[in-house]
Amino acid sequence: MRATRYTSADKDVWDVFLRESKNGTFLLQRAYMDYHSDRFVDHSLLFHNDKEQLIAVLPANERDGVLQSHGGLTYGGVICDESMTTPLMLTVFDALLDYLRANGLHRLMYKTIPHIYHRYPAEEDRYALFRSDARIYRRDVLSVIHSDARLPFQKRRARKVAQAQKLGLVVEPSNDLAAFWSILEANLLAVHGVKPVHSLNEIRLLSDRFPSEIRLHVCKENDVVVAGVVMFNSTQVAHVQYISSSDRGREIGALDLLFATLIERDYATQAYFDFGISNENDGRELNVGLIEQKEGFGARSVTHDYYELDVS
Length: 312
Description:
Elements: E1 2-5, H1 11-20, H2 30-33, E2 41-42, E3 45-48, E4 54-58, E5 61-63, E6 66-69, E7 79-80, H3 86-102, E8 107-111, H4 124-131, E9 135-146, H5 155-166, E10 170-174, H6 177-192, H7 200-209, E11 214-221, E12 224-233, E13 237-245, H8 247-252, H9 254-266, E14 272-277, E15 279-280, E16 285-286, H10 288-295, E17 300-310
Parallel strand pairs: 6-8, 13-14
Antiparallel strand pairs: 1-3, 2-5, 3-4, 4-7, 5-6, 8-17, 9-14, 9-17, 10-11, 11-12, 12-13, 15-16
């Protein structure tokens, strides 16, 4: 088994392998990964066996002698197909660690891919990490609904949905990212003093590249957008990427109606509905109010682990 560094000449091979993998999503295709190539020094890896067959890939970047899997993505780790076995993954990790040492990279920062994104079981890497004495340094909590076993909405959430329905609010897909982004930016600045991870131009670029996967849904009152959600839709997971509501939207329960519609109608056929995280500070601080809102729709917790490994 040998590891080699990704180059642009590998793009087509990478994307074909990714689409056929058991744990990859569109976020790990090069058209998504490379949109912020100016901010990250890409150091992705490909793993071939002695027959020159591509066995696995690792989306990654390099920073200060550290290999990160990948600093600009929500999740990462070794991407493989259904032929991957646990003994084979151990050889992949042997090749990975040999590569890091040979190239002066002294540490590995590794993001796993939550199991809800796996088409087939794909946690061989977690065993390899354990065998390598990697340390969990961060654990996020995703609030997830299993569509085949949905819990009922909390009574308070159900009342809010009923209130919004009586007002005749309309929930629909939208291409008006600018209208939603103005609400989102104002809220993030006022509450957290930050900007969205993606600028308006970036999210437009990505939605143009992945129109079936990146979708804006809005709630309107009298044709005015009062709340919106940007969804990242992969093979079996509908993931909430951005959420925001105007002051008026909060008064009338616009987000409650929007989420109810997405869960019960627009993404009801997806295996999982993922609200995302409600924690900060490497998972050690929990926003109780935020996670209670998500759990009010019947979501429950799935953990997302991050590992660190010193290879010097």
